[in-house]
Input
Amino acid sequence: MDIISLINTRRPETFDLNRTYVNHQLTRVLEVIGFNRTYVSGQGAWLTDDQGVNVLDFLAGFGVFNVGRGHPVVAKVMHDMIDANPPSMVQMGAGCVAGLLAEALAEIAPGNLSKVFFTTSGTESVEGALKFARQATKRARIVYCEKAFHGLTLGSLSVNGNEEFRSRNEPLLPECVSVPFNDLEALEKALSSRDVAAFIFEPVQGKTLRVAAPGYLAGVRALCDTYGTLMVADEVQTGFGRTGKMFAVDHDNVVPDIMAVSKALSGGFVPVGAVIATPEVYDKVFDCMDRCYAHSNTFGRGDLAMAAGLAVLHVLKTENLVAHAAEMGDYLLAGLNALVAKYEMLHEIRGRGLMLGLQFGEPKSLGLKTGWKLIHSMNPDLFCQMITMPLLEKHNVLTQVAGHHMDTVKILPPLTITKAEADFFLTALDSVLKSVHTFPGSAWSSVKNLAVRTAKTS
Output
């Protein structure tokens, strides 16, 4: 089978194939907002489309490509493993590569997080973490944060604080309750019944880009200890250097009982994730030989996935990418804050390291305020398309809207970005913001037309 020839021959049919067999509504969205480019390759922080245009990727596969796309070290490890024809997924056996990756994760995880269960995705890691917490504590209740995003399978969706994802799935798992993020008083009230198995949180919320306030995580740790609740950190997106530390909880020197990871550990080659727990928790789940399969899966310890994880950790260390992410995060933050001072609708920059949110808000000047209210009355999700659409169409920069009914644009560049690439983004954003701050103008007309087209096709 000549897979490359097959792809090259059928590539012009990409959107027709996806419309017919994969997700026709996503295909419609991409076409309406002008994101219907067909990408043919990726390297580092860049994508190349079928017209030969290079696009700066400030999404990084929703945080997958921390080490950049197509990293040569990870690629070589993949080739080497395939050529070695490893005895992967024997199931009734113990894999050496899985043991090596578990050892490497235990070495970089905070505190005594040293027992590892491998998964294939972030949501599966969260599902495993919830099961571990319930089995270890013999409690059923779970507390999570408002606006949290922990995945979309049934268990993780039950601790998802976004109604647009929960809709049409009720009833979800019982005994799951939410509290406001960064509110220790509300958390203590929820835990005080002493029947809560776990409190699960994101150190930086993936949807709102809100960061755990100073002292919050230390307070969470103290409350969990007081009430016998396990502290579960969802580091699926924040982990492996994204925030300028290996894990986001490291900023606060806090050690959770369980940590869920995935995304960047894969290098973008083979799906891989993990539940990392303390021995005290892990040994209560796998507490006898009869329970060696108290939790299991088929693909979690596949040799290719394990090798990809080892290669990613090697690259993070040898290329000093965690420190580089902190440096580039500061550089981008300074440039973005200069734009906050320059443009009245850009209110603040949230996030940490290279996980940042551009928060827009209602302007003070009369003309812009008129446009703001008009667009939001037509569709509360439209304003940020005035930022993301021209960034791609006119400047070849790929970004995303953070979530439904949020005036927030989220950026997640690879940790490998250079100052030149950061400047490319800042220059493009400055140009777009200048256009958006001219009312009436072409930017406002474009998004108004988008609202009309969306209404006609919905």
